[in-house]
Design a protein that fits this description.
Helices cover 0% and strands 57% of the residues. The protein contains no helices and 18 strands. The strands form 4 sheets. Strands 4, 7, 9, 10, 12, 13, 15, 16 and 18 form a 9-stranded mixed sheet that branches. Strands 6-5-8-11 form a 4-stranded antiparallel sheet, with no helix packed on it. Strands 2-1-3 form a 3-stranded antiparallel sheet, with no helix packed on it. A hairpin with an 8-residue loop joins strand 12 and strand 13.
């Protein structure tokens, strides 16, 4: 329960402290209201990353319900790495905390519940691109921010014919190859030897 106000002979007095002069019989009541329950919801963009609520790790979106006036902490691990593709061995995606949806850039925060609230951690997404060929070295492997454009050119190799690119299992014959990085990507330049 939480103190709302006083009533003196039926009249509402808003002050927390009450000082009255008694000159006649008076009815004085302290009025309390039941505290409400509210939700704290913590999400991530992109969805499904790990968040912390009161020190406990949870998969976003995560929610707790508690009484008005209760204190809580929430946050996000500033760098999260994952293995999201079976085409690339090991860590192939990483997410770096940028800010909360209200503009706050602190990775961990504290609050006192006074209403239901939602916070979303906005993350920078990066994906690993692995470029290879069994015949020639082609630059381009590395981490790319989601939405980045990548252009690769298969060079002419003496005694070999360029047959196309294998991009995550799909054959693409364009040269140069232009892709938008939106997930971990394995790219192989495929050549065949010219018979003598």
């Amino acid at each position: 329960f939480s103190f709302l106000n006083w009533t003196v002979n039926g009249e509402i007095v808003e002050n927390q402290e009450l000082c009255i002069t008694v000159s006649e019989p008076s009815k004085v009541e302290a009025i309390y209201g039941q505290l409400g329950k509210y939700n704290l919801t913590v999400s991530t963009y992109p969805a499904g990353l790990e968040v912390l609520i009161d020190g406990a790790k949870k998969k976003a979106p995560a929610m707790i319900e508690d009484w008005e006036g209760s204190s809580h902490s929430f946050g996000i691990t500033a760098l999260q790495e994952r293995d999201e593709s079976d085409r690339i061995d090991g860590i192939d995606s990483r997410y770096t905390f940028l800010k909360w949806n209200d503009g706050n850039t602190s990775a961990t925060r504290n609050l006192v519940l006074s209403s239901s609230v939602s916070y979303t951690a906005q993350m920078k997404s990066e994906h690993l691109v692995n470029v290879s060929s069994s015949v020639v070295s082609i630059p381009g492997s590395g981490w790319y921010e989601k939405g980045s454009s990548l252009t690769l050119t298969a060079p002419h190799v003496e005694n070999y014919t360029f047959n196309g690119w294998n991009v995550n299992g799909e054959t693409i014959n364009d040269n140069p190859l232009v892709i938008t990085v939106d997930k971990p990507t394995k790219i192989e330049a495929v050549y065949s030897e010219i018979p003598f």
